[in-house]
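BUG-498 | component: ligand-complex export | severity: low

The export step for cobalt (II) ion jobs runs without errors, but we want the raw record kept on the ticket for reference. Input record follows.
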Amino acid sequence: MAKSIAFNNTVLRDGHQSLAATRMTTAQMLPAAPILDSMGFHGLETWGGATIDSCLRFLGENPFERLRTLKKAAPKTPHIMLLRGQNIVQYTSFPDDVVESFVRCTAAAGCDVLRIFDALNDIRNLATAIRATKASGAHARGEICYTTSPVHTIEAFVTLGIELEKLGCDSIGIKDMSGVLAPQVAFELVSALKRKTGLPVIVHTHDTAGFAAATYLAAIDAGADVVETSIVPFANGTSQPDTLRMMELLKGNPRAVEYDRNKLIALREHFNEVYKQLSKFTSTDNERVDSDTLIYQVPGGMLSNFRNQLKEQNMTDKFEQVMKEIPYVRECLGWIPLVTPTSQIVGTQAMLNVKFGRWKQIPQQTADIALSKYGRTPGPVNADVLKLVCDRYKAQPVQGRPADALAPRMEKLRSELKAANLPTDDEACVLHAMFPREFAALHKPATPAPAPAPVHVQAAKPAPAPVPAAAAAPTGDYMRFNLTVEGYSTEVVVEDLD
Ligand code: CO
């Protein structure tokens, strides 16, 4: 008889990241943790992605304390986190020693499974994190970022799966952040990965376009080992399908699974209350099925975020135009998948192209993608765009692995913390590396955390437009796009979207 399918539950990470701007607090999670732990789920996604940023920036929480607390409250089920490979949980590459320390701290604080991805699917950006995960005794789940383009064939994804296996991954995840993985394609991709690798396959998608449940059914038929669901109201829409819904859909299926319905109802009741408390951050835009994601290949979270961003730029009427520009920008940048941080970069570039004309403004982040500073792009960068970037930034594309150019940084981070009279352990160092101001604010509450809202400031004196932004620092501010146009300098701040 076919083995039952198993579910991972995402409500404590992707569920609220997708539907409530990652604002669920540890206190709001804790009453649900023992119930979630008693369900018999294959795993609980509780950490990583934008939750670390959100803990520090908005919630005044130490993210490692959250992990330890949740692990204590739910000790039986493996805890899962989402790691952006060499970017850790930030937007740019960190040196190997920082990545290794972060992974060690994460495993030591109670995380059992690390989902490791790279926005460009550049395997070189995954290798250090995978090795460090294995060395720390945790489970390395290598992720394939799914997207559609002329260069993203089943064959190419399977080749990546085989490489992940060679690097020592314990399982393979298909990460469909935009919810564009069609059922038949899922069937073929899962079948091929099962055939060509000896690893368990986990499918992770979003119900943005209403595909998720059908896609999971097809993946289950093809032999997927695990699919990922959430709990309403932090389910469906731009999040994962609801657990009860998915369970019912499998009725009569030889791989059907049964989880305790009364407990699912209890969880739903708890999360209903939390959802109400987070009403400032929820939006009906995120809950509805939105076929725009299929046309524009844009992650659901990015769509709703984008509506806000365009409003701030007085560009509400340009929504369709900007969306149509996104596939063009993607193509010019080598058909990169749209996932943090590339989704923010491509989205912002599309907005700039519409507002000022194509490639009149090229922020540092776009230039870095064109120059392969994030890694190898799946297809070639448009030659004209590359020339423009090289001329404007007086730079040449890099050839090697991005992190090879970075010197070890842990001891420097430690002495900086010591000088600032802050904790100097490894956890402190890795948080300080990614979120220096926020980490300091956590220990000195008198210093207010930087305002998260975008600001628009008139420049002191008119600058000749356009000028490239200053070199971006690898800090929490990396996704502030500094632009100077027609005498105004504008800061565009974007949030995590997957
Ligand atoms: Co996701």
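Assignee comment: Attached the raw record above. DSSP finds 22 helices and eleven strands in the chain.
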